[in-house]
Automatic annotation (TrEMBL):
<dbReference type="InterPro" id="IPR002197">
    <property type="entry name" value="HTH_Fis"/>
</dbReference>
<dbReference type="InterPro" id="IPR009057">
    <property type="entry name" value="Homeodomain-like_sf"/>
</dbReference>
<dbReference type="GO" id="GO:0000160">
    <property type="term" value="P:phosphorelay signal transduction system"/>
</dbReference>
<feature type="domain" description="Response regulatory">
    <location>
        <begin position="14"/>
        <end position="128"/>
    </location>
</feature>
<dbReference type="Pfam" id="PF00072">
    <property type="entry name" value="Response_reg"/>
</dbReference>
<dbReference type="InterPro" id="IPR011006">
    <property type="entry name" value="CheY-like_superfamily"/>
</dbReference>
<keyword id="KW-0597">Phosphoprotein</keyword>
<dbReference type="InterPro" id="IPR047772">
    <property type="entry name" value="ActR_PrrA_rreg"/>
</dbReference>
<dbReference type="InterPro" id="IPR050595">
    <property type="entry name" value="Bact_response_regulator"/>
</dbReference>
<dbReference type="GO" id="GO:0043565">
    <property type="term" value="F:sequence-specific DNA binding"/>
</dbReference>
<dbReference type="Pfam" id="PF02954">
    <property type="entry name" value="HTH_8"/>
</dbReference>
<dbReference type="InterPro" id="IPR001789">
    <property type="entry name" value="Sig_transdc_resp-reg_receiver"/>
</dbReference>
<protein>
    <submittedName>
        <fullName>Photosynthetic apparatus regulatory protein RegA</fullName>
    </submittedName>
</protein>
<feature type="modified residue" description="4-aspartylphosphate">
    <location>
        <position position="63"/>
    </location>
</feature>
Length: 187
């Protein structure tokens, strides 16, 4: 069973680009336009879902973590309106749990930010059957990073429900919220 869909060769190269970091979004949009894509941009979840229904893009590049939600919530709309849409998730919070969640939701690739336009185009146009997950790290992660990764994995398994995640991790809900609001520890 082939799980990776490809737009027809004669399909327009329409691209929905969703990121709440405006300078990054605009810079990537210009670079993708130079590569022949007709780019539509959005900076939040609501606008992105509306544009996904209106534009029905053949390609999408989605930021995983938006100020008002998750890029994973846009994937369902894209799959509903255009099942062959090629979706790439971008995130500054890269970890294996969210990569797996993105691929299960329907993304064909997962790139860490800041990704350049060449990497984004390569991921969008990759026609192999396998989606690319991040390679395993060559150096072991520090303990605080391992802890953060574990919390993120449980958070994704709980459907991003803070209360349920806090119960499973046996920690106070507010403590968990503070941890989730922070960037990943360097490592």
């Amino acid at each position: 069973m082939e799980t990776t869909n490809h737009p027809r060769a004669d399909a327009p190269r329409t691209l929905l680009l969703v990121d709440d970091d405006e300078p990054f979004r605009e810079r990537l949009a210009r670079a993708m336009e130079k590569r022949g894509f007709d780019v539509t941009t959005a900076g939040n979840l609501n606008d992105a879902q509306t544009l996904a229904r209106e534009v029905r893009p053949t390609y999408a590049v989605l930021d995983l973590r938006l100020a008002d939600g998750s890029g994973l919530d846009i994937v369902a709309v894209l799959r509903e309106t255009r099942p062959d849409c090629r979706i790439v998730m971008l995130t500054a919070y890269g970890n294996i749990a969210t990569a797996v969640a993105a691929v299960k939701a329907g993304a064909v690739d997962y790139l860490s930010k800041p990704a350049d336009a060449d990497a984004v185009e390569a991921a969008l146009m990759h026609m192999g059957g396998d989606s690319a997950l991040p390679p395993p790290p060559s150096d072991p992660m520090p303990a605080d990073r391992v802890r953060w990764e574990h919390i993120q994995r449980v958070f994704e398994q709980c459907g991003r429900n803070v209360s349920e995640t806090a119960r499973r991790l046996k920690m106070h809900r507010r403590t968990l919220q503070r941890i989730l609001a922070k960037h990943a520890p360097r490592g």
